[in-house]
Amino acid sequence: MSRHFGWIVTLIVLGILLLLVMVQVDRQWQRMAAMQNTMSEQARDLRALRRSLQSLEGDLASGRFAGADAERAPRVDEVPSAFRRSAAAATADDYAEGDWLVQAFGTGLATITPYVSSDAYASEVQNYVLESLVQRDPESLEWQGLLAEAWEFDDSGTELTFRLRPGLQFSDGEPLTAADVEFTFDFLMTDAIAVPRARAFLEMIESVEALDERRVRFVFEEPFFDAMRVAGGLDVLPKHFYERYLDEPETFNESRGILLGSGPYRMEDPTGWTPDAGRVELERNPRYWGPVEPSFDRLVWRVIQNDSARLTTFRNRDIDVYGARPREYARLRDDEALRERADTFEYMSPTAGYSYIAWNQKRNGEATRFADPRVRRAMSHLTDVDRLIEEVMLGYAERAISPFSPRSDQHNPELDPIPYNVERALELLAEAGYREKNRDGVLVNADGEPFSFDLVYFQDNEDTRRIALFLRDLYARAGVEMRPQPTEWSVMLERLSRQDFDAITLGWTSGVEVDIFQMFHSSQTVAGGDNFIHYQNPELDAVIEAARGEVDEAARMQHWREAERILVEDQPYTFLMRRQTLAFIDRRIRNLEQTALGLNLGFVPVEVYVPFEQQRYGQ
Question: How far is CA 100 from the centre of its chain?
C-alpha cells in the first residue's frame, strides 16, 4: 500500500513540476513576444526620429524651422513623389499596418540572387528588397526619384549625375552612398561575375564615378535614349556585403539566395535561402529609410506548381491571389463562395508581355534547319494563333505581332501578323528543300531526313500543354513532326543557358518602351545571353544600334518600326499572344487600383493593406 502511495506522490510531484515548467515556458514566450514588440516599437521610434532629423535638415537648408510640428506623420504633399500614393493610402479610415500578403508561384525558383536570376518570379521578390535611383510614376509614367532626389544631364547628353537622398541605409544598418552605386556597376562589369544579361543593359555606360557620398555620375559612350532607365533603374547593391564575391566569383555565380538591399523588406538570413525551402518569405525591414512604413509585416510566396492545388489553396484562404486559366475563369467567376470573399480583375496590362516559340538556329556548333528564314516563316504560317486564342485562351488574349505592343508608338500600324496559310508554308518549305516524297504526308529533305523537332515547354502550365498538343496536331497535318517535351522549370533554364534545344516556348515581360537589344542583337548570342537562339542579322543590328543612339523620340520610333518590319519578315520567333490577366484577389486586400503600369498589387512603395479587423496573421 505504501509503495502505491509513493508512486502516487511521485506522479503528483512530477505533474506539479511539469505544470511549473509549462508556466515558465509560457512566461518566457510572453517575455520574448514583449521584447519583440518593444524592439519593433523602438525601430519605429528610431525611424520617426531619423525622419524628423531629415525634415529638420531640409527645413534648415530652406530657411524654415519645423519646431514642434516635426514629430507628426508626414503629409502626402510633404513626402517624395515616389511615396505619395502609399502615403495617401495610409490616410484611409480603415488603414492599418500588419498582416501578411501571401501569394503563390507556379514554378520553383532556381535562385533569387540579384542579376544571376533570370525569371520574373525572382524579380518580383527582389523588387521589395532592392531599390533603384528612380522609378516611373504609375499614372504619368514620368520618372520620379526613389534613392535619388535630383538628377541632371550635361550639355552633351552623355553625362548623367544623380544626387542621393540623405539618410539612406541598407537593411543591416550600413549607410547607402554613391560608392555603392559605383560598386554595383563595377561589380556587374567584372568578367568573372557571370551576369551577361545585366552587362547587355549596361554596355552603353562608359563609367560610373562616385563624386562624393551623395553624388554619382554615369558617363555614356554617346547620347542614349534609355539612359534614365539603364542608369536610374540600376538596383543598388551594398558594397560592404557583395564585394567579398569579387574574390570568390563562383560562389556568387552559383548561389541560390544571396540577397540584401535597402528596400522596405528583407530576407531574415540574406545568404540562407535555398530552392528546397518551397517558399520565399520577406520580413519588414526595421531600418527602412523611407518616409512611409510598408503596410505588411511579412510577404510570403509559396511554390505550388500544380494549377488545381493552387486553386484549392486559394479556396482554403491560404493564399490571397489566384491567377485563373481561361477555361476555369467563367466558372469561378460565378462561384458564389468565391464571389463572397474575392474580387475579380480581368484586364490587359498596359505593359503585358508576350509569349512566343523561339527557333534555335545553331546547336552543338552546327546550323539547324531554323537558320533558314524561309523555314521559320513557314512555321509561323503553320501556327494558327487565332484558333489558339479562341480555343485555348477562350478569347482572353490578343495576337502578338512582335515584341512591341500594338498600343505602343514603337509598333508599325502598317504591319499585319503572319496569317495561317498552309499552302504558303509548304511553298516556303519546298524552297528550303523539304518536300513530300513517299506519299505518306511526311516532309523530308534531299537526304530523306524527315522534318521533325522537339518543342520544349514548361510541364506544369496546363494552357501551355494544351497549346503544345494543339500545335503538334496542326503541324502533323502539314507533314512536320513536332515532339512536345514537357520540362521542369529548372531544367528549362539550364537548357536555355546551354542553348540546348530545337525550339522552346516561353514569354518575355514588357515595359513602357521595349529595348530589343538583349534578345535579338548578334552580340548577345554569348553563353548565358538572352539571344539564346543564335539569331544574327546585321541589318537588324544596325537598326537597333541606331534606335538606341537616337534621343529624339519621333526619330527613334521610326527606327523601332523598321526593326519591327525586319522581325516580322525574319521571324526569329513565332510571336503568339499577349494574355489578359484573370485574377481573384482576397477582398480583405484594400486600395487595389488599375494604373498605367497595371494593377498596383505589387507596387513598391506598397500601396495596398488589410484593415485591422480583417487581418489573419501576426495578431
Answer: 20
